[in-house]
Amino acid sequence: MSQSARIDATQTSVSRAGRSVEWPKTGNRLATGSEIFGQNVFTLKTLQSALPKPVYARFVQQIKGRQSLDRPTADAVAHAVRVWAQERGASHFTHWFQPQTGTTAEKHDSFLTLKTVFSGGIEETYAIDAFSGSQLLQSEPDASSFPNGGMRSTFEARGYTIWDTTSPMFIRQGPHGTSVLYVPSVFIGYNGEALDEKTILLRSSEVLSNSAVRLLQVLGDRETKRVYATLGTEQEFFLIDRGIYNLRPDLKITGRTLIGTVPPKHQQLEDHYFGQMPSRVLAAIAEAELELYKLGVPIKTRHNEVAPAQFEMAPIFEEASVAVDHNLLTMETLHQVAHRHNLKVLFHEKPFAGVNGSGKHCNWSMSTDQGDNLLDPTLKPETNYRFLLFLVATLDGLYKHGGLLRAAIASASNEHRLGANEAPPGIVSAFLGEHLTEVLDAIEENRDVRNFSQPHLQTVKVGGTVLDLKVSTLPQIARDLTDRNRTSPFAFTGNKFEFRAVGSKQSPSLPVVLLNAAVSASLNAVTEALIAEKGSKPEPSIEDILTVVRRFTAASKLIRFEGNGYSQEWVDEAAKRGLPNIKSAPVAFKQLLEEHNAQLLQSLGIMSAEEVHSRYHILMEKYAKDLLIEANTLKNMVSQGVLPAAFTYRKDLADFLATQKALGLDFENSPEIGVYTKLTAVAKELQASSDKLNSLISQLEKLEGDEAAELAGTELTVAMEDTRSKVDTLESYISDKAWPYPKYTELLF
Predict the structure, then answer these.
(1) Which region ranges are annotated with the description Disordered (predicted)?
(2) In CATH, what class is 623-748?
(3) 19 to 174, 213, 732: CA distances (angstroms)
């Protein structure tokens, strides 16, 4: 790669004209977000206006799970959605699903079909547009070409995508002004095995609902028929110039830089966080928001993140299964829109060494079909007994199955971020804050929390306060009951838990599935304990509830930690408590096979034994493959770019010194000799490191399964880091003109 290519890409990045997009208008003014929202979504309201009342009523009953979808209803819905989609330019439809690849998949089929008629003994064929109920309900992609973890043989290709009626259909822009109708779907094997992320998510949601409703019924709630997990995903990402990105093979192939040193200024001044967005970035994100509004994705927030070139978008909370769909749509839309602005979006958890990486904070709670948030403590959590029961059930699930949640966030890419003073450590713990901690402590110590309104009794010692800023023009503000803790992997933040350790690149589905499973089991345990306490009484008394809360508070107390999760003191304290500190992904994946974890998933009907083992093997295989791809990419960059640059620059130095010697000049005291000597030594070390890396690659390519993952996670990663350190040292010795790849300064600024 020539220096001119780097210069051209850098100059183009700052001189390129920006892309302008016309915002929709309503009359003579710009349309508001609410006016744009959901334009490209086939809503229930749209369907209701297109169907006869009895047909629509049957469909609604099916969505609620009260009857199966019959063929006439499916045909009616298919016809209605086809007409709606084609009025908006749709030429094709696709079953949109989520295989275990970390992204989505789609196969487009046109509405065009041929119809043959016979008239007077003459056969005539003509083209029509059609979309049948059977086409809406299911499709058949090739299941053998997606990860299956051994549940399918290579020659067994049949698999099915099935319409998920709980997630609305929508249209997206296609080529040449056309659009495509997207049908959200699940993906299963020939024998019904879950081959995707969504099937298990829907199963876990149903299990959570059943467990929560049962507990509510014991408490006397006869109105709630359904409880669902809510989810809000804060999506972090980097945006860099696409031209410069194209000159970095590591970014193109692996999503992260395998070589490179941080520039003198990066994030240490803390001036990028919440700073003014670069105009080009703001234009891209605003266009992405416009596309997402039309798709019914409720994007609420955008801002600069900590590292240079790092940003975040976050939505309003939704039902978890829809929120996962919308998060994946957000990632896909950002990817497409960034290209239109000649930018590249990076979702890797650690694309640049030395600056903060990216996460996907999953804000999780539980809500009823009556609109109640079950994790809302209200103003007096100490007497909100329903809240306390759901709180301790969540903590109990986290304590008993924290290993599952650690497995949910494990990946080759997230290993670079976890525990690196920018993300929670590999120790799973929960943060509640001063107020809730005091409430649970008071209950455990048998203090009468009901007398909170009488401070002289010293029952619960903390509460909300008002802050006076001592500025006459500023009002007093209400201070929250508790501060936040960004070092906790599972922190309570007002009326929800924030699962902060999820990686930015991964689908939020598996973390939510395993969290739903753990909490469901503990809700069942809490319900059984409450039934035992109340005995023959129609409903449990306050004392019955407090007895159960006390028991589960004491049992799960070790999982609670209020301090600095980044500190060595916490690592030491967690070890004393017996909490595992899992530092590598392969070890984390094995938590899926731990008997009590695997039994949990199987007993709840979320995954079969075969599906648990399948997912374990897929995760292990992907981990090894990810690292092998990185190692091969690094090997090629060293052999084809870095070492040739070092040898060329070394030759230039040698030629200069030889010329000085030939001219009889004092070349022995020339400063070039020092550079030549250092360059030679590091180049030799790099050659040795590269040879060792190549040897490990050859060894790894012969292995499979656990052996491959374990070798990749130990020796290969060490060899890659050693090789990188030599390359990064060479970067400081070789002239900028001779360096073959764009540097961090060009990528981040």
Answers:
(1) 1-21
(2) mainly alpha
(3) 19, 51, 37
